[in-house]
Amino acid sequence: MEAEDPGLPPKGGMDLPQDGVDLPEQKISPGSMDTGEDEPSVALDEQVELPGAQNNGPLSVAGGKGDVQEELTETREESSEKDLSDSASTDNTLEDSSEFSRPMVMDGGPPGEEEVAVQPRPPTHRDEDVTAESWRAHRKHIFVLSEAGKPIYSRYGNEEALSSTMGVMMALVSFIQSGDNSIRSIYSDDRKLVFVQQGPLVLVSVSSTLQSEQQLRQELLYVYYQIISMLTQASITRIFERKKNYDLRRLLTGSEKILDRLLNLVESDPCFLLGAVRCLPLQPALRDSLGSLLQKAITPNLVFSILVARSQLVTTVQEKTVIDDCRLEPTDLHLLLNLIGATSAFQTGEIWTPICLPRFNPDCYFYAYISYLDADCTVCLILLSTDKESFYSVSDCKKRIEEGMRTQSYLQALSSGLKSPSYSVAMVGAPDLRHFMYKPLDIPDNYRQLPQFTSPELEGPYCSESERHRLFDLYHYLHSRIHSTARPLRLIYHVAEKETLLAWVTSKFELYTCFSPLVTKAGAINVLTKLLRWIKKEEDRLFIRYPPKYSTTPNPGKGSKGPRTEGAENGFFGGL
Amino acid sequence: MGNGQEMAQRTTGNKEVSFLQDAPGSKEFSCVFKVVLLGSSSVGKTSLAYRYVKKDFQDSLPTVGCSFFNQCVTLDATTVKLEIWDTAGQEKYHSVCHLYYRGANAALLVYDITRKESFEKAKVWLSELEKEFLQNEIVIILVGNKLDLSEEREVTIEEAKEFAKTNCILYTETSAKSDYQVTELFVTLAHELLELEQQKEKLRHTTHWKKSRVDLQETASRRMKCCQK
């Protein structure tokens, strides 16, 4: 998503950026709202809320109309209305899929029913004592609540126990709303509180990480989209239109794990930060053969065929039926993969499930066929169809793909590539380089393709979780500086306590690198040159350069390979 | 506890020999049956399927949508192919569940014997099925799972048995964890399916299909309109 970020200066100011060298001690406070008090001060964005202009995050969805009629009294009345809401809610659920004509009435059930709706679980984050200091000490809290102030999700601790906290959050939202404005964030000494309102849902992040407000907002949107991917935006809107204090947890029971997993991934997998997909490094010939195999095994209404191995994209095929301008969004793929990762799977099983791709269309379901092709459940085939009845024909496609993979022994070839988890940074041959993330922006036919990135395994000092968090905090920080809407940068050389980092954006790529702390500036630049050469050499293996799709449409991007010259990259540093 | 065996015995005592004589022509195709597992979330639907198909137990994560398996059961000379549709128990998927149970030949209504509410939900599922199917179209078995946790039992055997009896459905208790009565459940199911198939076959030949109705085993007390009360 960041590729289109308008914040980047359009011209190729290839010379030394004014603030290229960054002072590590400089405090990041995008707003000037730092307050020392416990009393939260409200950082209001000056602009009066316009529909659609509400989110400046790149993922913003238009149409989150400011619905101010929410009243606090309703929050208080909720308990008395609870029974009513819960028994009526089943109807809502069923009517979601306009086809289900018969409401399932549960009024015959015993009175104890409501209480047991939330099922007993083994002790998890959710059983944490929300009054304990350890609960407060978490790096990042995420809360989801409804406009009526009803708790929907909390990353740590039981939502029920947090209902008064969430009530306060909703009070803040409503109070600002009543002044025809919307609350965006609150900055305190060591925490950022970010609010996102999407339709009838309010999402709140309370973070002590180095992430920028915009990044936190982005994460909240991931959470929102994950919820949408399970329920669709249209049905959520409909449910809350009918019943303002509906308890959405009814529909999300069992899905907390999906959200938990998402939030852990968001903190540890750069694909979310970069808005790009990680490809499995693979010989281009093998990738092409797999692509054409997918392309052959199609059936009417099949829209996307996606082959992934350990959450890394092997290849994807998009059928002609999809209009030209559409592409699979990385967000949708991330959410889909997260959902798959958080559900039970075993090899023989074939999964058939409705799933919404929120960036593609937030209101409708695709039907996803998911099946693993190997015994270890590493190679996963995902076929997305628009026809809910097409299970058998889609399953048949899988059989053909499986058959093709067997006769050509593609699976062995794939799994041999999977043995080593990814690749080591040592392959670059630059000892000072510890880690990097490279997102090419010059993929042919870019606008129709999934944005991709590559990065080596985390090794060396970044083996423990806390060290990894520290590194990603630094990456987040660099990313926020690069993509700052107020003052975007193209190049940052950042000397941190235990490492030195360099981030660099050109029209051709976005690159984040991490060096040992003793590297000199000149040394780092040498390493970068080496790295870029290495990536250039390996790019056919690391990325999907020419995606197999639209068999009828010639690929106009193919010609653009020529103009790329290495000289432009190497010459860049002349100014430093 | 003894119910599972009881049921299995009853069926085995009844059936398979006569079936083989009756319908030797039940060719390959008529022996594919669609079985759907229904019930609230975390009652053990996936675990039952996993136990049966993989002969193993693992703590499983929630199912999304529906998960599909094939399993062949050999009953004497006949091989029956079961297409098992293991549905998600989560409420958000209820709106699409009809997709999965449409055209089913059998339904396993699974509940957790330690959770009363899951039993109530199974009742609701039954009434759903009754709207979709005629009684002689589908084999329904009420399955109380998690027998290994019987100290925490909330649903008594009597209660469940009584309910099954009133609604003319089969009933058993299982434990996917300790592998109690799981295979038996599916074998019985296969027998029942064959029996049903055979009766359907007969009906196709006899004139008035409406009046000669199939009864699985109990006396022909018609199914109640509403299972709740």
Question: Can you describe what's shown?
Answer:
In chain A, strand 16 (491-495) and strand 17 (500-505) form a beta hairpin. Helix content of chain A is 34%, strand content 17%. The longest helix of chain A has 25 residues, at 72-96. In chain A, 43% of the residues are buried. Chain A has a 6-stranded antiparallel β-sheet with strand order 2-5-6-7-3-4. In chain A, strands 1-16-17-18-14 form a 5-stranded mixed β-sheet, with helices on both faces. Chain A has 576 residues and is α+β, with helices and mostly antiparallel strands. The model of chain A is unreliable at 1-121 and 550-576 (pLDDT under 50). The radius of gyration of chain A is 25 Å and the shape is globular. Residues 1-29 and 218-229 of chain B have low confidence and may be disordered. In chain B, strand 5 (139-145), helix 6 (157-166) and strand 6 form a beta-alpha-beta unit. In chain B, 38% of the residues lie in helices and 20% in strands. Chain B starts with a helix and ends in a 24-residue tail after the last helix. Chain B has a 6-stranded mixed β-sheet, with helices on both faces. Chain B has 229 residues and is of the alpha/beta class. The interface between A and B is large, with 51 and 43 residues. Chain B: Keywords: GTP-binding, Nucleotide-binding. Chain B: Pfam families: Ras. Chain B: Belongs to the small GTPase superfamily. Rab family.
